[in-house]
Amino acid sequence: MSESTTTEVIRTEGLVKRFGAVTALNGVSLYLRQGEVLGLVGDNGAGKSTLIKILTGFLQPDEGRIFIDGREVRLRSVSYARSLGIETVYQDLALVNELSVYHNMFLKRETLLNPLPLLNNWRMRRLAREYLESMGVNIPSVDTEVAQLSGGQRQSIAIARAVYSRARILLLDEPLAAMGAKEGSLIMNLIRTLKNEGQVSIIMIAHNYAQVLEICDRVNLLQHGRIALDKPAGQTSVEELTELVMREYRVGANQRQQPLAGR
Amino acid sequence: MAENVLSAPPVQTEPEPTPERPNPWLRVARLFLRQREASIVVVAIALIIYFQFSNQAFLSTQNIRTLSQFVAATAIISAGEVMLLICGEIDLSVGQVYALAPFIMYFANQAGLPLLVGLILGLIVCALVGLFNGLITVMLKVPSFITTLGTLFLINGLTLTISQGFPVLTPSEGLINEILGHASYSEIIWAIAITIVMQVVLSWTRWGLHTVATGGNLLGASEVGVNVARIKIGNFMLCSVLGGFAGILEAFRITSIDPLAGGTDIMFMAVAGAVIGGTALTGGLGTIVGAFLGTLVLSILRDGFTLLGVSAFTFDIILGAAILVAMILNVRLRLWREAGRE
């Protein structure tokens, strides 16, 4: 293998996924380098979520190959993908509203007061506080119930939890959706912090091209189940991405309008 | 979205205009009222004061003993129901298990086994009933309301069949009987001990944390890796075993094992006690201590009205209304408390 592939944490070759008559992915080949933030954009139905679900082990591709750290793997389950260091932060966040921030952070990874089977709440509280502070995540207190937090704070905690669980590859499903500018900047700052640390590699689905270009190293545009564009963020623009998506939309719209024009 | 509204207050806590001089008593009162169980304690104390003024016998030693007997068995059952309600399920059959367990113990004893072995056998049968409830609910995806409605009739029929419909006397072995419910306050001591242990399990163990997570966000909890099926099935078993144990204690207390004991009456009392004590029927929220206090309030009502000489017919009307009033108060106080937190 060449030198460049050793730094690739993910490589896919010709991924195909069909749902009955619908072909969601039609030969997706992409790669993610160590420490990189890759923005995945594309119109609704372009196949972004299907791709993420395959990489997280939730769906299996019909064709194609997946390499993690240069080794070919079959991501047969979510827990197997997780064992390889792949964590996904879904839009539904998987946080429990009724539990405190630190209990959410440590859910399923609780520390105990050995040898007693009791939770070591003091330690979990302290570790959660220290970690969130180091990540620059600003919340009133780690004792707060998650239900009381804003959307941006909840998203930050979900991401921080994934990273804290020693994820090396982070898949973010629309982390900036339905968020105001202030809330969105919380997440942007967190992703920037992670990028500077360089420990995790990130694929992030997003709709807002301006934010994608601001935070990502590289952009992939997914269209009709294929990668239609792969450029470093510095070499493309909101205009180019918009144009690519709109052009296709215009073609479709013109075709539909023809009978009207003939009237 | 509403999230933005919620996000603002916690960030800026300092500029909140504090009243001139914070009265220390007011602060203590406020701190107390922010506890989840506070509202129900207030209701319980108000009722005690009312009944004591109405009838001096209310706080007599004898009546306190009666009251403790009202509370004990129901409180033990409601501890199990709370665990199930928190993880989003319910057990309607626990009142039937309550009647079955002492019979299993009795027949095992009649067959020559030691009483304690019979007791353990009875509890194992209860655990199997819980396992059955849990497996059908979790694996076959039948709502627990329906599953346990089925086992309610099934177990009731089973108890009536093996007992042939007749009550029997509890085996008499002196000390064991005294410890297991016959001595004056032994049943309430068991109830308090079980309440404390279960509250520790709920708040301070992995099992409790995962129970809350299962009820609070089923999909999210399983995404994180919580084995939600195991949590649910385990809590079904726990609820059944506690129900059976309560039935055995009660049998020893009254020295008789009745195939018609418990039933839906005690089950609904336990669920009502849990809900009055702050457990949400929608899952994710609840405390064992709250359920104990909720059961206490219900028992105070029942006992107090009996002392006042209210007829049995009007009693149910008053009890029903009182449950509603207690619930409304509880909800109002909780809303008020949540508003005060921000």
From TrEMBL, chain A:
Record-annotated membrane-spanning stretches = none
Q: Entry's InterPro entries?
A: AAA+_ATPase, ABC_carbohydrate_import_ATPase, ABC_transporter-like_ATP-bd, P-loop_NTPase
> Where does the ABC transporter domain start and stop, copy by copy?
10-249
Position of the signal peptide: none
Q: Name one GO molecular function term.
A: ATP hydrolysis activity
User: Record's PROSITE patterns?
Assistant: ABC_TRANSPORTER_2
List, alphabetically, the Gene3D superfamilies matched: P-loop containing nucleotide triphosphate hydrolases
For this protein, the record's Pfam families field holds: ABC_tran (PF00005)
Q: Does the keyword Nucleotide-binding apply?
A: yes
Q: Which domain of life is it from?
A: Bacteria
Keywords from UniProt, A to Z, are: ATP-binding, Nucleotide-binding
User: Do you know which PANTHER family this protein is assigned to?
Assistant: CARBOHYDRATE TRANSPORT ATP-BINDING PROTEIN MG119-RELATED (PTHR43790), SUGAR ABC TRANSPORTER ATP-BINDING PROTEIN (PTHR43790:SF8)
Protein name (record) = ABC transporter ATP-binding protein
The species is Thermogemmatispora tikiterensis
